[in-house]
Automatic annotation (TrEMBL):
<dbReference type="InterPro" id="IPR010916">
    <property type="entry name" value="TonB_box_CS"/>
</dbReference>
<protein>
    <submittedName>
        <fullName>Uncharacterized protein</fullName>
    </submittedName>
</protein>
<dbReference type="Pfam" id="PF13416">
    <property type="entry name" value="SBP_bac_8"/>
</dbReference>
<dbReference type="InterPro" id="IPR050490">
    <property type="entry name" value="Bact_solute-bd_prot1"/>
</dbReference>
<dbReference type="InterPro" id="IPR006059">
    <property type="entry name" value="SBP"/>
</dbReference>
Amino acid sequence: MKTQHPRSGRARRPFRALTAVAGIAIAGLALAGCTGQGSGGGGASETDASGKVTLDFWNGFTGPDGPALQKVIDDFNASQDTVEVTANIMPWDTLYQKVLTSVASSDGPDIIAMSASRMPQFASQGLFMGVDDYYTDESHDSKALNQAAIDASVFDGVNYGVPVNYTPMMLYYNKDLFTAAGLDPEKPPTTWDEFAAMVPKLTVDQDGDGKPDQYAIAMGDHETVPIYPSLLWGTGGGIVSDDGKTSTLADPESLKALDFWVSLVRDQKATQIGMSGADADKLFQTGKAAMEIVGPWMTSGFDEAGLNYGLAKPPAGPTDPAVLADVVSMGLPANTSDEKKAAAYQFFAYWNSAEGQTTWADGSGFPPNRSDVADKVTSSPYPAIFGAQDVADDAKLLLPGIAQGGPILETVFTPALQRALNGEGSVQDIFTAASADVQSQLGK
């Protein structure tokens, strides 16, 4: 089973519907607070029969990296006798939908993991508790944590999360397919132009039916890591201005990138249109695509499939070599009791301790959140690859700190991209209209 990234599988319901449901959730939080029954999800009891504080940890680590997460949880539970964490694992899209209606209920979560880029959407609706005091408490040993991972969950000057992981995306490429195409298996594309030159050689239509049997790259266009939006950086473009106030989707720099990639996909069939992130993973894993840009959570799945693959930085655009990075953070419901908050902080500190991060990195392939444990990670080569300094230097978060970031991607960018890929209009017309919709979202 493949892990669906927190950026994939987003709730597909419109933002207005999400906001309406959030209103109900906020009302529930207020009621729970008034009746004295708010306890990190409103649970009637905060302890089990042994007297331990129990924490229900919702997350979406459903695939190859799930066992590594469970190992850290098991180690934490065994390390002390006051707190018991239980992982409640579900697909990320299910989690995002359930959070809105469950944070104030009796069966709601105590700890919630999600993409840090999604936290502003929920925090702006009053569903999360600020955790700045976690970082100011020196006993939590946060000084060695990746600062970008810490800052990723900040919204409106308040931090709402503690990092589970931070990672850039990398280019996976199938060395056997490169060799079969007459390409050097040790020389993946380093620029967009090099990539474009390889597309015809790596796209194979064996029966001549017009549908490739092998694609140059596997790229999902919905319910996936937002690779397409990040490609706008390559020409100096983007979706929203750095100050988060203005849509830049129709800027010439953004349209240049969109023209380049839409043409490669629509006209040269560089990838299959209409795939989710899970579909793209499967296409690469089964040897039907020569490349994929994705995170370290797929390393164990691809290794188990016996793929002969390499890893490299994604091809750099003509203006900016930026690499998409993403952070998964842990947050607390706004009605969390003091007892459960203290217990959660104890777990957060263990997760991000040298011991916890070494176990996590060795088991998952993610680079550790801490800068002082790299030499302790010895069981897997992947943390060093994904955490390499030249990759980290170009790593960049998409739409950080923007409350409407999720809805902009889900209800504006993704539908516009799909229309463009399916030839339902010109890139300029489609994304000029989409830019106006982005601006409307920013005004909410």
